[in-house]
């Protein structure tokens, strides 16, 4: 299995976890629910989405915004700074 395929499977697994969390929110809203519990579930989903977005953005920066394979990486430091900025913003 290729490296990219493994990464894709990890991202899909994250989406499935988020889907499970959203389903939990729906079930909680349909039953007798505690607002504090719903807010915690919502915060968990938001964190999961932000984390997933960070991973996809990082992959995009590394795989599409830097020099193609085999070529020198003139903007490696700039790309790493951008990744750090994105991660900080999504926390």
Automatic annotation (TrEMBL):
Segments passing through the bilayer: none
GO biological process terms held by the UniProt record: negative regulation of DNA-templated transcription
Pfam short name (any one): Trns_repr_metal
GO molecular function, one term: DNA binding
Domain of life: Bacteria
Family: Belongs to the FrmR/RcnR family.
Protein name: Metal/formaldehyde-sensitive transcriptional repressor
Protein species of origin: Paracidobacterium acidisoli
């Amino acid at each position: 299995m290729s490296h990219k395929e493994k990464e894709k499977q990890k991202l899909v697994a994250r989406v499935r976890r988020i889907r499970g969390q959203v389903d939990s929110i729906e079930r909680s809203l349909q039953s007798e629910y505690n607002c504090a519990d719903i807010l915690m579930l919502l915060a968990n989903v938001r964190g999961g989405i932000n984390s997933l977005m960070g991973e996809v953005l990082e992959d995009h920066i590394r795989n599409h915004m830097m020099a193609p394979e085999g070529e020198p990486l003139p903007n490696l430091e700039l790309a790493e700074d951008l990744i750090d900025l994105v991660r900080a913003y999504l926390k």
